[in-house]
Specification:
Blueprint lengths: L1 E5 L4 H9 L4 E5 L14 H4 L7 E6 L4 H11 L3 E4 L5 H7 L4 E8 L5 H5 L8 E6 L17 H4 L7 E3 L8 H6 L5 E6 L4 E3 L2 E2 L1 H11 L2
Parallel strand pairs: 1-2, 1-8, 2-3, 3-4, 4-5, 5-6, 6-7, 7-8
Antiparallel strand pairs: 9-10
Length: 210
């Protein structure tokens, strides 16, 4: 079970997550987010660091030039496109890094119809909760109906996201889908926006991997 911790803003916490055997760390490059990394974590802090986890940049309808600049500056391994990006953007970026396309789930969404245009142009999907503002920033603390995924074929590795907390480890272990790849956690593991509670993350990791 892969674990992605999103919304990190401190190099110290990146190192701690690496020590906890976390698989992915997410940096949010959307300036409207309280977890915006651009003015908190410098490129000098992260460039050249020997890390086992994958560094993911999270973008919302960003200009492709800005995404490419961040890939280079922060030596990103993957990008997560969390807005309304078209398949062509995913395809262009897939020549540089792995691409995670995020989808904000509303009501009784037809998952297979939603993801079909992106099947050949990204590496992973991520399913998150939508909110009144579109859910573009993530970190909503709410969950969508996971049963929608159980009914879908999907046929690409995907992350579950949206409102996952420490108490959800058992629910996640019991979730079944052949393409279920990992979980994305964020706001419910924080002491403040962008600052994670490492004890909660360790406990969750241990419960999840029993």
């Amino acid at each position: 079970m892969n674990i992605k911790v999103c919304g990190i803003t401190e190099m110290k916490q990146v190192d701690q997550l690496d020590g906890l055997d976390i698989d992915f760390v997410g940096f949010i490059f959307h300036s409207g987010s309280p977890r915006y990394v651009g003015n908190k974590l410098s490129t000098a802090e992260i460039r050249g660091r020997d890390l086992d986890l994958k560094k993911v940049g999270v973008f919302v309808n960003a200009d492709i030039a800005d995404v490419l600049e961040a890939i280079d500056d922060y030596q990103l391994d993957a990008v997560q496109l969390h807005g309304d990006e078209l398949p062509g953007i995913c395809e262009d970026l897939s020549t540089e890094v792995e691409v995670i396309k995020a989808f904000r789930i509303r009501g009784d969404e037809n998952i297979d119809r939603l993801v079909a245009p992106y099947d050949g142009v990204c590496d992973y999907y991520l399913f998150d909760s939508a909110t009144g503002n579109g859910g573009a920033e993530g970190g909503t603390g709410t969950q969508f109906n996971w049963d929608l995924l159980i009914k879908a074929r999907i046929e690409k590795p995907f992350f579950l996201s949206g409102g996952i907390g420490p108490e959800d480890a058992r629910k996640i272990r019991e979730f079944r889908h052949p393409d279920f790849f990992g979980v994305d956690i964020n706001s419910r593991f924080e002491t403040a926006p962008g600052v994670k509670d490492m004890a909660k993350i360790l406990q969750f990791r241990q419960s999840l991997r029993q």
